[in-house]
Amino acid sequence: WTVYAFAANAFWKTGMSIYNAFKAQKQEDMTVRAIRHSNLVSAAVSILALQTALLGTFASENVDISLYNTLTGCAVSALSIAVGVYMVVKGRKQLKQIASEKERYGE
To answer: Of 9, 78, 16, nearest to 47 (Cα)?
Structure first.
């Protein structure tokens, strides 16, 4: 039963993090955006952990568990890197915009 509870938690976490990540795009505060995007990566890690648990519990003998876990782990790592790069680029762009506004208005 524990695996099913973990699955429910992982899917709930994934759904809510996707919803909140889209909702955070409307926010001006980059801190809120960063937290929401970090939650999205955390949800992806939860799905990876769920896959590992499910394959370990229910997989037959002829399934290559390590291959599937490696592929999913690579996808989660790529998502994590992509989210990190996106946040850095977006943050630098916003900092440049703030600096140009300060320069324009003489603050």
So the answer is: 9
Q: Are 46 and 10 in contact (CB under 8 A)?
A: yes
- Ramachandran quadrant class, 67 (left: phi over 0; alpha: psi -120 to 50; beta: rest): alpha
Task: Give the residue from 43, 37, 46, 42 showing the smallest Cα distance to 6.
Answer: 46
Task: Looking at the chain, list the stretches that DSSP marks H as alpha helix, in order from N- to C-terminal side.
Answer: 2-24, 30-58, 65-105
Give which of 82, 88, 101 is closest to 30, Cα–Cα.
88
Going by C-alpha positions, the residue among 26, 40, 50, 46 that lies closest to residue 79 is: 40
Rounded distance between C-alpha atoms, residue 72 and residue 95, angstroms: 34
Cβ(58)–Cβ(73) under 8 Å?
no
Per-residue pLDDT, 107: 62
Instruction: Name the burial class of residue 97, with classes exposed (0-12), middle (13-18) and buried (19+) by CB atoms within 10 angstroms of its CB.
Output: exposed
Threshold 0.85, pTM exceeds: no
